TrEMBL record:
GO biological process, one term: regulation of DNA-templated transcription
SUPFAM superfamilies with a match to the protein in the record: CheY-like
Response regulatory domain mapped to chain residues: 2-116
InterPro entries attached to this UniProt entry: CheY-like_superfamily, OmpR/PhoB-type_DNA-bd, Sig_transdc_resp-reg_receiver, WalR-like, WH-like_DNA-bd_sf
Keywords, ordered alphabetically: DNA-binding, Phosphoprotein, Transcription, Transcription regulation, Two-component regulatory system
CDD domains documented for this protein: REC_OmpR_EcPhoP-like, trans_reg_C
Residue ranges of DNA binding: 124-218
Record's protein name: DNA-binding response regulator, OmpR family, contains REC and winged-helix (WHTH) domain
Record-linked SMART domains: REC (SM00448), Trans_reg_C (SM00862)
One term under GO cellular component: protein-DNA complex
GO molecular function, one term: transcription cis-regulatory region binding
OmpR/PhoB-type domain residues: 124-218
Modified residues (4-aspartylphosphate): D51
Amino acid sequence: MRVLVVEDDARIASDLKAALESAGFRVESCGDGENAWFLGDTEEYDLVVLDLGLPRLDGLTVLKRWRGNGREMPVLVLTARGAWAERVEGIDAGADDYLPKPFRMEELVARARALVRRSAGRGSALQEAGELAIDTNRMSVSLRGVPLSVTALEYRLLSYLMLHKDRIISPGELLEHLYGDEDAREANALEAVVTRLRRKLGPGVLGTRRGFGYFLEPLGPGG
């Protein structure tokens, strides 16, 4: 899952990035409102963690611009403790959830997971497709009830396909959501990950429709 962290405090931003990456997210960050507005308006994110007190352009204005332009990614707003009016205004502007500072990273990660699931129409942390199961809270994968050892990248790929299991995901979309800006986003690299996963999963789990992309079997009615 691809997450944008918008926080001008470098220490907090670093802590957020570390916590979210350890939970299986792919994190990008920026520290001012102008850059945040541009990134959120031109890139595809599964979640944005947005501080409201930003330089150059405040977070509330950024959020209003995103929603005004039809950007619908889930947004978790960070606010100062006790700033209830700011929280209300943020929710009215289109925030999906808020978290007052200071906060525990464990709570932020839990809220982030829940927002990503809800945005994909998935309520439970345990997701299943055929005989494959993923527990997003435990970051575990099992096949026919047997735990499966996967790398962090393999887990992110399976998790993304699981969240969108009713449709075929193009290689371009997978590359966008699995890799950060510092990584080489190459189709050959993605195919190598898929090949490794197929060796572990066996037939009838991870499917390909030539010219369209990848999906988990059985493909839902929307596919």
